[in-house]
Amino acid sequence: MSVCLGWFFTVVCWRHHINFSPTKRKEAGKAAVTKLSADVSSSCTMDQRCIQLLLFVTSLLWGSTNQVHLTVSPNSAQFFEDQSFNVTCEDVDSSAEWTVRRNTTIGTMEQCEYGLDESNRFTCKFNHIARLDRGVYWCESRDGSTSNSVYINVTGGAVILQSPVLPVMEGHDVSLHCQTKRPPSKLPADFYKDGSLIRTEPTGHMTIHHVTKSDEGLYKCHISSHGESPPSWIYVTDWSST
């Protein structure tokens, strides 16, 4: 746990107190994720939820250095094993060729073969995913330019929390869905933020209206007789940071 706490405070310090340029932030993020992956590989005592949170928060360091935007479809930070999702690199000027890379909890960095979809975007498909596929995903061009990065969690459990994988703009609404792997999926669910119960929703769906920075935090949900979802961080950004 000391490894976890040390990493957490290091990442928070970098995130909030050091004014990195985009290039420096990218370099710091790469170094942090690589170092964290190595620490995870050598420390079997590190709590998996701690690892997931740290990989996500570390990914926030990894700023974009080009006019490219990464999106995930379906728009969720969590998936069940054997599900599928797409990662798309949307280039503003379409002048560069992009591919999707990832850094997972086992420390492997991979790239996927990409192809242009009907909207001329670079899309990578991940099918029949497993828990080893959880990690930080980003787009990268041949010259080393990078997009924003996201943390995607894959669980073998019975419950997931469907929440936005990308930062949410302040003032917008956020929808959270507590979902079971097998039907029925619209069951009563308890929603938690930073470990405290927020409310219980009869159909497993909760909407946070007009989010502010105070809504930022670590969310999870619980469905009786099914279990608890992994935690996901909801990050709120204001207009001045876009």
TrEMBL record:
Top-level taxon: Eukaryota
PROSITE patterns documented for this protein: IG_LIKE (PS50835)
Keyword match Ribosomal protein: no
GO cellular component terms listed in the entry, alphabetical order: external side of plasma membrane
Keywords: Disulfide bond, Receptor, Signal
Keyword flag NADP: no
Domain Ig-like, first and last residues per copy: 157-237
GO molecular function (one): transmembrane signaling receptor activity
One of the GO BP terms on file: cell surface receptor signaling pathway
Record-linked Pfam families: Ig_3
SMART domains: IG
Protein name in the entry: Fc receptor-like protein 5
